[in-house]
Amino acid sequence: MVSRQMMSQITWVAGSYGVSQGLRLFTNVILARLLAPQLFGVMLIVNTLRTGIELLSDVGIGQNIVSNRKGDQPDFYNTAWTIQIIRGILLFVIALLLAQPLAEFYDSDELIEIIPIISVLFLLTGIQSPSRFILQKQQAVKTIALFDVFIAVISAIVHIALALYSPTIWALVAALIIATSVSTTTSFFLIDFRLHRIKIAREHVKAIISFGKWVFASSVVFFLAMNFDRLYFAKEIPFAILGIYGIARTFSDMIGMLVQRVGAMMIFPKVAAFAKERSELRPAISGLRLKALLATACGLSIVVALSDLVILILYDDRYTAAAFMLPILMAGAWFSILSTMGESFMLGIGKSVHSAQANLAKLIWLVIAVPLALTYFGLIAALCVIAVADLFRYISLSVSQWKEGLSFLKQDVVLLGLFIFLVLVWRFIFMQLGLVADFNTWLEYGSVING
Predict the structure, then answer these.
(1) Most buried pick, 167, 287, 305, 400, via CB within 10 A?
(2) Closest by Cα among 405, 254, 252, 264 to 341
(3) Dist. CA 389–CA 359, nearest whole Å
(4) Residue 220: how many CB atoms within 10 A of its CB?
(5) Could you give the CA distance from residue 241 to residue 264 in angstroms, rounded to a whole number?
(6) Are 282 and 406 in contact (CB under 8 A)?
(7) According to the 3-state scheme, what is the secondary structure of 339-365?
(8) pLDDT tens-digit profile of 351-402?
């Protein structure tokens, strides 16, 4: 019965994610035909900076609600919600103050106008109901899945409609604000909206801050580790190339985001709720983990082998360079998947510090290696450096998992070998069938990058 319930949850998580990402992909393709590549470059900077400002004050509101035994009690989640509102107001003010310096740093007159408008998003997300996290704690996967699909549909409709009406950067800005407004409003109907109260309970504030201090550290390092390439490239390469890179990153991040969602909605809550002795945890999850990663290796290997074809079919000639970038970035998603799964285990046992350490290892690699690669060998070398970055995150987490008796190193070495083998086999088969280009033609796709 438990297995059937778990399969049902996986189906809802994967299904809703597939629909949401399918809509996102469809929207991205339509927008790419309506808008110039440099506009995607500008929005890549805007969204990255927005995410960074949010994470600079993250105390793990959602993680607190999920992991705390009292998380779904009104006193606790209303205290968490009140802290979230205060944080949203502070972030709104900070964003306004940073608009001018950031515009000057990136030498973009557009940012001085866009950032103050985008800062409204901090107010909207600040007042958003904590209902999603309450449902996550209760493992109400179906409700969350339907909500995510609804928001994805609204976002797609709004983005395309506004881009058709006005094919400018302001269509993207306005669509983002409208979609977030809808998400915030509807979040209050996921649970009884009458239960929401502005409240500060001291004991809960202490618990939230105590748990959240490592979540904060991890969030800051996580943001820099996940976005250093975007922030650095925005200063070093043309916005048009940055926009093309953003397209490739959008695709490569999809797999990791799916695993992250599975980890957040299923692995993290289940590990946190595990009532038996710690020594029994690893045997309880080892078999399920192996089956999940075997399926992932098979699926991801096919995606990597075909990824350049996807770009060539969906996008016009202005985005051909993404067909070179995507296979490199997509292959690196394997280590991201392993790391994300490891982080879910460590968060589940209340060891959020290990996540911060792992992301720090990845960040150190990126900060040192990306500038060196770009300066001396060009953007292609920098892409390879980025692709293997999550390996360092994985190594750090593996050491932490070993210390906690949750090591899966032998399993992962075998799976890595299988993944590489499958990628090569699938690529050879698809080349023989004429579905993908040979090695030399693939290199030509990226000729514009270092040009």
Answers:
(1) 305
(2) 264
(3) 10
(4) 19
(5) 33
(6) yes
(7) HHHHHHHHHHCCCHHHHHHHHHHHHHH
(8) 667 777 888 999 999 999 999 999 998 888 999 999 999 999 999 988 888 8
